[in-house]
Write a structure and sequence with these properties.
- The complex is a heterodimer of chains A (about 130) and B (about 325).
- Chain A is about 60% helix and about 10% strand.
- By secondary structure, chain A is mainly α.
- In chain A, helix 1 crosses helix 3 (about 45-60).
- The longest helix of chain A has 26 residues, at about 80-105.
- Chain A is elongated, with a radius of gyration of 21 Å.
- The termini of chain A are far apart.
- Chain B is mainly α and about 325 residues long.
- Chain B folds into three domains: about 5-75, no CATH class; about 80-160, no CATH class; about 175-325.
- In chain B, a hairpin with a 2-residue loop joins strand 1 (about 115) and strand 2.
- Classes of the chains: A mainly alpha (about 130), B mainly alpha (about 325).
């Protein structure tokens, strides 16, 4: 059971990391820096999950990256591309809608929401 | 950093590199980023002191298994798309059933059957259940490998001019096994072709007649080129699946198309693709009418294919030029 919950939790987190990473990458960050910022915010993410995600977002045009070789070791910095800057507010709105909907469903504590029965005309009943 | 620490890190990276497919540029980029992260973690863990072997062991454990980390970077590209799974299983079942029927037929008749370069020999000792089972299993594996080649290539043939963009569902580890099976099948075909003096499509049977009896001089003269073209085309498609677009795969693609184009043009130039003279006993006077008609049809087909190949050759050549320019 705990394995199943871990798996579901990991899937949920993976979906959220995408928008969290995009939001954080309004500022230029390198991969491991992003891992630490996410972890500090309570979204523990492994490099094996985050780095491929960053590459995917880059290939989708939402991020750009560049190697900085001036420091003690080379670092690959990511930042939102112009498309990413444009897309982020829309993604945030989608996230708020989803988050609001799920929140409302969870607040109902398992009771199915009441759905109005369709009114069937008397003729059809016969 | 001390020797054992860097050694352990490089060993981890080497293992990841081995497990990671894709083009070398992308691989280098990923490995460098992983290496930087490992050293960042080490630095953080040792608090600026020289990291110990214990530190490196714990950091590498936290990074995960190199092969698994490498796999997470590989784009998911299934050899079989979801919609192909059912037809694939049906085809394997059908081909396996037919194949086994021929094996049983060969065993009952007590002689080998030959179809182009493929031979179906009888089961040596039909009374031995283990031997029969092993033969059936071997037959099944062969059919699976063969059909995987066909299924992997078919979608690409459908968009012969466009770039192969693989869409994937099979997990990387499974995909590698499937690809290995395909490569082995291809190797078997190549070995078989060479064993038959590069005449895979045109093998004289034991009775002195031809397995493909009606091929004309145009095909017969170019059989070597035709075989090489077919092999290079299969190899090219498999390499695209395994390594994606790179200078090597594009180079092979261009060479394969050029080979195919030369082969088809030579065949068309000879104008004798079908020869029905040996069939006059069966077809009678119809052979005289049917022969030229088939010849014209096959020539037109060859011309059409040659035009497609020429277009693909130009497109791939141009793409190769672009990739080379970007690389330099």
């Amino acid at each position: 059971m705990s394995n199943l919950l871990d798996k579901i939790g990991a899937e949920l987190r993976r979906g959220m990391v995408q928008i969290a990473a995009l939001s954080l990458l309004r500022k230029r960050l390198y991969g491991y820096q992003l891992v630490k910022v996410l972890a500090a915010a309570g979204l523990e993410t492994e490099e094996g999950t985050l780095y491929p995600l960053l590459r995917r977002l880059e290939s989708q045009g939402l991020l750009t990256s560049e190697w900085d070789t001036e420091g003690s070791r080379p670092r690959k910095y990511y930042v939102l591309s112009s498309e990413g800057v444009e897309a982020l507010p829309r993604l945030e709105r989608i996230w708020e809608e989803i988050s609001g909907s799920v929140g409302r469903i969870l607040q109902q504590e398992g009771d199915a929401p009441e759905v109005e029965e369709p009114v069937v005309p008397v003729e059809e009943k016969r | 950093m001390t020797g054992p620490v860097t050694e352990a890190v490089h060993q981890w990276l080497d293992e990841a590199a081995t497990a990671m497919g894709g083009d070398s540029g992308r691989r280098r980029d990923v490995l460098l980023e992983l290496e930087t992260t490992i050293y960042d973690r080490l630095e953080e863990r040792s608090g600026g002191e020289t990291p110990t072997t214990k530190d490196v062991t714990e950091v590498l454990i936290a990074m995960g298994e190199p092969a698994e980390v490498a796999n997470s970077f590989m784009p998911v590209r299934p050899l079989l798309a979801p919609h192909q799974t059912r037809p694939f299983l049906l085809n394997v079942s059908a081909v396996f059933a037919v194949h086994m029927l021929f094996v049983i037929g060969a065993t009952v008749a007590g002689k080998q059957f030959g179809f182009t370069s493929f031979r179906i020999s009888p089961i040596e000792n039909p009374g031995n259940a283990l031997g029969v089972f092993a033969r059936a299993l071997g037959t099944l594996f062969f059919d699976i490998g063969l059909l995987l080649c066909v299924f992997a290539i078919l979608p690409r043939l459908q968009r012969v001019i466009r770039f192969p963009r693989t869409s994937l569902i099979v997990r990387p580890k499974t995909r590698r096994s499937i690809e290995l099976a395909c490569f082995l099948t291809l190797a078997l075909v190549v070995v078989d072709v060479f064993r038959n003096n590069l005449l895979a499509l045109y093998v004289p049977s034991a009775e002195g007649t031809l397995i493909i009896p009606f091929i004309g001089q145009g095909i017969e003269d170019n059989i070597l080129l035709l075989n090489l073209w077919l092999i290079s085309a299969i190899a090219r498609e498999l390499l695209y699946v395994r390594f994606g677009e790179s200078r090597s795969t594009l180079g092979l693609d261009v060479a394969s198309n050029a080979l195919g184009l030369v082969c088809l043009l030579r065949m068309v130039a000879s104008r004798e693709l079908v020869d029905l003279t040996g069939a006059s006993d069966v077809l009678g006077s119809a052979a005289e009418t049917l022969g030229p008609l088939l010849n014209t049809s096959f020539s037109l087909l060859a011309v059409g294919t040659a035009a497609l190949l020429a277009a693909r050759l130009v497109f791939r050549g141009f793409r190769l030029m672009m990739v080379r320019r970007a690389g330099s």
